[in-house]
Write a structure and sequence with these properties.
Blueprint lengths: L7 H15 L1 H46 L16 H36 L6 H40 L6 H20 L10 H28 L1 H32 L2
Helix pairs in contact: 1-6, 1-7, 2-3, 2-7, 3-4, 3-7, 4-5, 6-7
């Protein structure tokens, strides 16, 4: 007979809850860290991406004129580097690079601290600065992959926007779906790398059921929060912020314990 309590992803559920209940103030501090990160990231992304979007719309509005003036047909993406809009395109790219750098710094400082707290809650000790340095190093890999995928997605989106404007209908390409799938895969390997601060190649059959559990838990919480919001938007919003902040803390502790089990066998 199968002892479900000994299955790693099931056993980690109770251990994660116990860790949070034993250290409520540390868990609360992690919630504050998440809230601060989301606020700063939201402010920066709204400000910079709005500027980039406004510049991008200027480029797209110029496309019909650029197409009419062509003597030799050019590839679709080459149009956004036409002499008449090239400077704007480079400014948009510059804003994208600046946004990526600011996001990296914020992510390392705030999310690195949050994952360090998760490590402590799971019973593992490591000096704060050592952890942050290692967290920064491994995220160079993940951010490079994310940057490549997001850049490819942005260029595909620009291409589709141009084609949609020409054709007068919305166009969605299959490569978009492939890039989104690749982003999910990179996200998985990034998240499970944080407990050990190295790329995790083993333990997929142990870790993946836990990821599915967290996904189901997230969907269930979202469903109940939506019901509360229908009764009272204010109550739903407040409950949503609190519940999701606690969920993030719990998810990090849970993943930390689960990954450690998969690789240490503890």
């Amino acid at each position: 007979m199968v002892n479900f309590e000994k299955i790693p992803f099931v056993e980690s559920i109770a251990k994660s809850c116990s860790a949070l209940l034993k250290n409520p103030w540390m868990a609360a501090f992690s919630c504050v860290i998440d809230a601060a990160f989301l606020f700063l990231y939201g402010f920066v992304s709204t400000f910079l991406l709005q500027i980039a979007a406004e510049m991008g719309s200027v480029v797209i509005r110029q496309l019909p004129t650029i197409i009419q003036q062509q003597r030799v047909p050019k590839p679709i993406l080459a149009l956004i580097f036409d002499e008449s809009v090239r400077s704007i395109t480079f400014r948009v790219i510059g804003i994208g690079i600046l946004f990526a750098l600011i996001t990296y710094v914020l992510y390392v400082l705030f999310q690195g601290t949050a994952w360090k707290i998760a490590q402590e809650l799971s019973g593992k000790e490591k000096k704060y600065l050592d952890y942050i340095k290692s967290f920064a190093k491994i995220n160079i890999l993940w951010f490079a992959l994310f940057a490549i995928l997001h850049t490819a997605y942005a260029f595909l989106s620009a291409r589709n926007a141009i084609l949609s404007k020409i054709a007068g209908t919305t166009i969605v390409s299959f490569p978009h779906i492939l890039i989104l799938m690749a982003l999910v895969v990179v996200s998985y390997f990034a998240v499970v790398s944080y407990p050990l601060l190295r790329v995790v190649k083993k333990g997929f059959l142990t870790i993946f059921p836990g990821i599915l559990f967290l996904t189901v838990l997230y969907l269930a919480l979202s469903f109940f929060l939506a019901l509360i919001a229908k009764l009272s938007l204010v109550a739903g919003s407040i409950a949503g912020i609190i519940v999701m902040l606690v969920f993030l803390v719990y998810a990090r502790v849970y993943i930390t314990i689960l990954v450690q089990k998969a690789h240490v066998g503890a």
